[in-house]
Design a protein that fits this description.
DNA polymerase, domain 1, about 500 residues, Ubiquitin-like (UB roll), 7-stranded mixed sheet, 5-stranded mixed sheet
Length: about 500
């Protein structure tokens, strides 16, 4: 999904027809059409979520047919008609009705998939003005949506199809003052989402910005040592600097809940999980794009790892974090009444242990942003759900006052909690001191949200005529060796327990 990927093929002058305009671009013929549209033509309404044709966010029309722009080489589309979300406005009244229907039905939520949905729906309705629900479902099946559950989108397309064969529709309007309760409201940010003009983390890159690539641990656990970093920089023109844990000026630890924080920007001598950052290479965008990181001077010593919850909790188990005794992040207890007595007196007791599967947040939007110095402030623009927490953590990492940090949140293309924590922000702000204060831009090469399962030992007892006399649960999350969601573990534990209690008991439940 990132634009930082090897692409050193010979460039050619290519002639394109984009949104009814004849254009010329210079690019390798094998370059992805999605990259050319976004990076050279500035048509960022075409979103990129996977670069694999899985999510459909980059859907455009090619000679009237919906295709994934990330799977099409730009050399294949010379002199073919390409239409992006920005160009659909030239297709009234159909597209106007689609936009109106999406706004009225709330079909655009985070908005990352919305351009792809609208393009796919346009392709359908231009060929079939009265589709069935199954035909709409098939037409939209190549575009993933994490927010809506698809129902609102399908309804909006069917509604637009009806309007397409009827009289002109009125533009959605808000109810009059005093008459809003119970009425549909158009989202305040709905218009830019259906027009493809909303700005997400990867949609704005300042001209001349340096790019950054992170070097990550290839093992689940390993010690590492660096070789001659200065020689590596000297041998690669365009590379400005290499950053490691030694370049972090403040307290190298962050997390959305201070007492649970345990993640450094870069690992210190030992990486605790596969993919943990150990260094970052900063330089001119083209140099970073063409860089072969296989030659990066780092040596690795793979170490034994903890694979399961039981291994991590076993007596004498290696501590993942020295300050987390027994590999336990937090303990919580919610209790009411005498559970042991209820179980002893019950006519039937059922016990079992259940393990949940991994839960992926599955955000369509990649995590991306940039940092720059503006006057006496560090200014970071990135996708985030928690700008004030970001501000506090960045100030701590840099060892400066929070007033010296400004966070500009972009639209969030799917968050679901995973973008509460820092992601690109720590990497993008660090180079300010070694790169002459130049703006630095960074996008994750993937968008992992570090999902995890839980183990739930469960005992349930019942007496005649009473469906549940006692309920005893213990929720255990995996070893704390990976970032992000586990830091909310204590809160989630207590909420999980409370959710299992009858409503009449919740108000009297104590937790400690």
């Amino acid at each position: 999904m990132a634009s930082i990927a090897p692409a050193s093929e010979t460039k050619c002058l290519l002639k394109l027809v984009v949104n009814d305009r004849k254009l010329s671009v210079v690019a390798p013929p094998v370059q992805r059409l999605s990259r050319v549209l976004r990076e050279q033509l500035g048509l960022t309404g075409t979103k990129v979520g996977c670069d694999a044709g899985d999510c459909g966010a980059c859907t455009v029309l090619l000679d009237g047919e919906a295709v994934c722009a990330c799977l099409v080489a730009v050399g294949q589309v010379e002199n073919h008609a390409i239409t992006t979300i920005e160009g659909l406005k030239s297709r009234p009244p159909l597209f106007d009705r689609l936009q109106d229907a999406f706004l009225r039905h709330g079909a655009a939520q985070c908005g990352a998939c919305t351009p792809g949905m609208l393009v796919s729906a346009t392709a359908l309705l231009e060929h079939n003005s009265s589709p069935s629900e199954s035909e709409v479902t098939d037409a939209l099946g190549g575009v993933l949506c994490r927010c809506t559950g698809y129902r609102k989108i399908i309804t909006a397309v069917l509604d637009a199809a009806v309007l397409n064969t009827g009289p002109e529709s009125a533009e959605p309007s808000c109810p009059t003052a005093g008459a809003s309760v119970g009425q549909r409201l158009v989202r305040l940010d709905g218009k830019p989402k259906v027009e493809g003009t909303e700005i997400y983390g990867a949609d704005e890159i300042p001209a001349g910005a340096l790019a950054l690539r992170v070097v990550r641990c290839p093992y689940h656990r390993a010690k590492f040592r660096f070789g001659d970093l200065e020689a590596f920089v000297a041998a690669h023109p365009g590379v400005e600097a290499i950053l490691t844990s030694k370049d972090v000026p403040g307290e190298d630890c962050y997390g959305v809940i201070a007492s649970f924080a345990d993640q450094p920007i870069f690992a210190h001598e030992e990486a605790r999980h596969r993919g943990e950052a150990v260094a970052a290479i900063v330089g001119e965008a083209q140099a970073i794009e063409e860089l072969d990181t296989a030659t990066f001077p780092a040596s690795w010593e793979e170490l034994p790892l903890l694979r399961t919850i039981d291994e991590a909790l076993a007596p004498g188990a290696r501590l993942i974090h020295a300050h987390r005794p027994e590999n336990v992040l937090t303990r919580g207890r919610v209790a009411r009444g005498n559970v042991e007595q209820a179980l002893a007196e019950a006519d039937a007791v059922v016990e079992g242990e259940f393990e949940t599967g991994f839960v992926e947040h599955a955000c369509i939007e990649p995590e991306a942003g940039f940092a720059r110095r503006v006057g006496d402030q560090i200014e970071i623009q990135a996708c985030t759900q928690s700008p004030y927490m970001d501000r506090a953590d960045i100030a701590k990492l840099l060892g400066i006052a929070v007033e010296a940090v400004r966070i500009i949140p972009t639209a969030v293309g799917g968050g679901f909690g995973t973008k509460l924590d820092l992601s690109v922000q720590p990497f993008s702000h660090l180079p300010r001191g070694v790169c002459g204060g130049r703006c630095v831009w960074f996008i994750h090469a993937s968008s992992p949200s570090w999902p995890r399962p839980s183990a739930i030992p469960h005992a349930c007892a019942a007496a005649p005529g009473q469906p549940r006399t006692a309920n005893c649960l213990r929720l255990i999350s995996p070893p704390i060796s990976t970032p992000a969601p586990i830091r909310l573990g204590g809160l989630r534990l207590r909420r999980a327990f409370r959710c299992m209690l009858p409503d009449r008991m919740r108000s009297r439940t104590t937790g400690h």
